[in-house]
Amino acid sequence: MKTLFRSLRWLSLLLLVVVYPHETAEAQEEIKAIRSQFSFYPGFRFCNPAEVKGVGFGNQPLDVMLAQIYIESRSEKVIAAVKISWKIYEFEVGMRLATSGKCEPPATPEAALSGGTEFIDLDALPPKEATIIGIHPLPLLQPGQRTVYVVHPFMKVDDVRPMGDILKQEKKHVVVLYVSAIRFADGTQWVMCPPAD
User: Fold this and answer.
1) CB atoms inside a 10 Å sphere around CB 83
2) Residue at 85 is within a domain
């Protein structure tokens, strides 16, 4: 009986070794296929007091789509905290919206999906300066740069899964990123106007 039990245990371990890597490889391929459908672009609005200036990918976990961004202040006031928001559009529409640079909110089509963060404490970002915000360790190292760490990445593959059938079409999409709200050190706040309909 002991011999049979040992044989069954070894057989189950062998099956686990054979099956697990195959399932893992399939899941990794699916995640890579989803990630390849998305480009990330800052939504430039030159009149806003702060903006997402860029993104960094580097060595980030496979299930993470975006873990590091760069924020630049245009304000004369010290920024205490920011909210980051994102919207997903079909590629051509997203690029047009991201690069318009207009001060007034553009009339936009409905985004396929949107999301964002709570306020992120920037530890008093001085006027006209920039900072990196990212998970620890940073996917793309920038020694000497002012850095703020967050617990969660800005966007994971699971965040876009609600797009469902759209993902199966394998179309290119743009994730437009922007600073949607600011809390200044003096206690005042700024909120980005919603797009006009």
Assistant:
1) 17
2) yes
DSSP 126: -
Counting the structural domains of the chain, the total is 2
Distance separating alpha carbons of residues 116 and 153, to the nearest angstrom: 11
CB 120 within 8 A of CB 26: no
pLDDT number for residue 46: 82
What is the rounded average pLDDT for all residues in the chain?
85
Provide the whole-model pTM: 0.81
Please identify which residue in the block is written with the tokens 């040992």. Answer: 6
Terminal CA-CA length for the chain: 74
| 3-class SS string, 52-107 | EEEEECCCCCCCEEECEEEEEECCCCCEEEEEEEEEEEEHHHHHHHHHCECCCCCC
Name the amino acid, one letter, at 142.
Q
Q: Give the residue numbers spanning the domain of 55.
A: 38-191
